[in-house]
Write a structure and sequence with these properties.
binds zinc ion; three-stranded antiparallel beta sheet; alpha+beta; nine-stranded mixed beta sheet; 39% strand; 367 residues
């Protein structure tokens, strides 16, 4: 899908000069390639700098002026996932489930254009190979899973993300717990005799404390798609964001591109939730002692900046039984994460084998 539908010049540049076919971006390169005649076309390097945008300023004055693109959001009737596409583009299947039916009525909205992206490094063949290896290593997977999974589609999707930077200052109140030991006397029975013994017992002394800690956050990643399972996408991290390049339609040719469904302001809230455990751990080391308790924390955020980026993902969904399972491959690093079925039969067999081994061992040792 091509974001820049009005721009006919770009579309012309995407046509192969040899045969007129649409050129596609070739993962792992900086080139467009023709899948029919093999012609290659290097994407000119951009000198544009990828900048962090001031969040407050953008929200208050810049947002209205910013270039927007119109997208249609359609909902897959089979799995409920939202797909975004240009008004004149239709999807022949839903990449988020094994279904080929996509409802064509959708709502139109205007969204911000991404500013930078990480181009695909892993191509489709490689992604399929990573998936096969992943399936092969699964424990307790049904035996026919491989064939079933192989029949699924593999879609290359540029997924929208927000990244946030900020400095935080957190005022907290809490308590420091310090261990101390006391010698206690107790009575016990030894060889039928009542005897008195002593032992060291640990106690914690709590003293209240308060303080101020500072944290610096760089590129907190928030996925802006609502169609992918967040727990799996988080496990696809880390991404090498140093490889971001300025946005260019040519990198998208041959791939699907989703636009964000999580708004910029909503994304910041999610980013703040991701920062909280880090701030809590800074507070704990500030409190010191052997144990820490945090009663209140009040965080102020300054110098908030953001980037609107696209990251490459291969996604496949496969039906097993009547359930849909999805797996994802990081299109930059090859990291695989996914949902998987378990074989009830294999698990039962494993339990039975374990029980049998235990019975044999007990029989051997009791001889
Ligand atoms: Zn060609
Ligand atoms: Zn679907």
């Amino acid at each position: 899908m091509d974001f820049n539908s009005e721009n006919k010049e770009i579309n012309k540049e995407l046509k192969c000069t040899g045969c007129g076919a649409i050129l596609q971006f070739k993962p792992g390169t900086k080139s467009l390639t023709c899948t029919y005649c093999g012609a290659e076309n290097v994407i000119e390097a951009s000198t544009e700098v990828i900048e962090e945008i001031d969040f407050e300023k953008f929200i208050s004055t810049q947002y209205e002026k910013e270039e927007k693109i119109e997208v249609v959001t359609v909902r897959c009737s089979a799995c409920g996932a939202s797909l975004t596409m240009l008004p004149n583009v239709t999807a022949d299947h839903c990449p988020y489930c094994a279904s080929s039916i996509v409802v064509q009525t959708g709502s139109t909205s205007k969204v911000l254009k991404p500013k930078s992206l990480v181009p695909f490094v892993i191509d489709k063949k490689k992604a399929a190979e990573f998936f096969r290896n992943w399936i092969n290593k699964l424990w307790f997977a049904p035996s026919d899973l491989k064939q079933k999974a192989a029949s699924g589609n593999l879609d290359g999707i540029y997924v929208p993300y927000w990244t946030y930077d900020t400095r935080t200052q957190t005022a907290y109140t809490g308590a420091r717990g310090t261990y101390y030991y006391e010698t206690e006397t107790y009575t016990t029975t030894e060889n039928g005799q009542q005897v008195t013994r002593t032992r060291q017992v640990r106690h914690t002394r709590w003293s209240s404390t308060a303080g101020l800690v500072a944290n610096d956050f760089d590129d907190i990643l928030v996925i802006a798609s609502k169609s992918l399972p967040v727990n799996y996408t988080q496990r696809l991290e880390p991404w090498r964001l140093s490889e971001l390049v300025p946005y260019n339609d040519k990198f998208l040719s041959g791939f699907r591109t989703e636009s964000y469904q999580v708004e910029l302001v909503e994304g910041l809230k999610i980013a703040k939730d991701l920062m909280t455990p880090v701030i809590r751990s800074t507070i704990c080391s500030d409190i010191g002692g052997d144990e820490q308790r945090i009663y209140t924390m009040n965080t102020s955020y300054s110098d908030i900046t953001f980037k609107h980026i696209l990251l490459p993902l291969w996604i496949s969904s496969y039906k097993y039984g009547d359930k849909v399972y999805r797996f994802l491959v990081n299109g930059q690093t090859g990291e695989v994460q996914g949902e998987r079925p378990y074989s009830a039969l294999k698990i039962t067999l494993a339990i039975l084998v374990t029980i049998a081994i235990i019975i044999i061992l007990i029989a051997l040792f009791s001889k």
